[in-house]
Amino acid sequence: MTSQAVHASGPTTDDAPDDTRPWTTAAPGPFGVLITATEPGTPVTAVPVPWLRDLTRRHHLVALRGFTAPADAPALDAYARTWGEVMEWPFGTVFDVRAHQDPEDHVFDTGFMPLHWDGMYVDFVPEFQVFHCVAAPGAADGGGTLFCDTTRVLADADPATLERWRGLTLHYRNAKVSHYGGLVVSPLIEPHPDAGFPVMRFLEPVPDGEHIINQPDVGIDGLEGEAAAAELAAIRDAAYDPRHVYVHAWQQDDIVIADNYTLLHTRVPYRRGLPRHLRRVHVLGDPPLPSHVHDHRGTTGTDTQRGTA
User: Fold this and answer.
1) What pTM does this model have?
2) What domains lie within the chain, and their CATH numbers?
């Protein structure tokens, strides 16, 4: 019998560690939990990490709003370490997610970004992404982060589609011009490393009419031309189905913890010059999950290390 994900309808009274705690919980979208502070000055560290970890694994995303956030990058690193072993990159543990004046990669731009999972081009796939919003555009100006719950994509697929997708292996290649790149060969569907239910691994090809810096090459083993394009389009359409996505519209000092084993994510485009600055730390699973990377050597940067405690 195949394990299946349990789709929680939203936070319940069982999700609250103590009714006297100074915060409320709500469902921000089809999945996830929004925790809002009710007393000014409550530090995010007041919310028990074991409870948050359990919430994130069950609901796949937790957003904390109105709390006093870590003051700077070292403080965010210290907070992330309370979640587990943090992942070390060539730049350190804290990644500044913001646009560059002359971007060398679409990661540092403001336009379209392919849906993807983090850690695909390095040795280990992190379990959690810990984000802190330093600055954000206005609510109507874009710049949010779109998350796709792949368990919902698979639950809503018809049996014939699901059977076809189970047999697909995709390959992805990106030039290593910044901190990532190489060749990845991955099944579209694989079991969650801890819970066993099926999840999707998918890097979206760039649609016709979109142009990005350092565009990935995406293909399907055994399919070419129109057949491959049609299959990739079907996967993409299912991933972006409104039933399967939540767009987090950032507010200053939001903290978001996302389940990178289950979710895919991308940036909502925004106008260059608007303030958008996130900090992100990756937390590895226990044990760390090996990636499907075949070659992550490149002409710039260095290979990543496993992580630091």
Assistant:
1) 0.90
2) 13-295 (3.60.130.10)
